[in-house]
Specification:
Helix content: 25-40%
Number of strands: 10
Amino acid sequence: MITLENVSFAYEPGRPVLDGISFHIAPGEAVGLIGANGAGKSTLMKVLLGLEKAEGRVMVGGEELTKESLPRVRRKLGFVLQNSDNQMFMPTVYEDMVFGPMNYGLSREEADRRVDAVLEKLGLEALKHRHNHRISGGEKRMAAIATVLAMEPEAVLMDEPTSALDPFNRRLVINTIRELGQTRVITSHDLDMILDTCSRVILLSGGRIAADGPTEEILRDKALLEAHRMELPLRWQG
């Protein structure tokens, strides 16, 4: 579903933020992208979305990311922002959810069917006509996920999806992520959440891949994590 071949990027000449990144993510795979601050996680997300032009090759859904293919590639990707307030910009949840599908040319009736199907799947029917400024942070995070799913992307990218959530809403988001059928790429410092949602982890450090493998194997490696300024998941500390 997603392939990177020798991808490098620098904001300033001679100071690479990404340095020779290569990996392949299969359809339906859930991958946690972890690393300390400054490791290159956010930049890698921007490269996948075509927000930054990198050296090397980026493939999404069998199509190379180029200036010409960018609109088609972006239709295959859904991005859930860390701050839901930056994503939910219409007055109501419903209006946010139909905006994308209709912008892609679907009729109001077709967009409505998508909205209802997604809300039913996530158990969020009660949020449909709620005003975005009158729902809780957890409800807004779930609504943001629903908005992305209404676009029917082949892959969902998520940036810190459980940040600033209380335990109940954090668990709700985790359960939702686990049930998604799409390819998932999740950046987070919440290693317990990564452990609950991802079968594989890619550890970035200094713009390079420091480790790539089964989630539990990497997240149990205390020496590896500490060498890259990270700690064991909370459940394994002490």
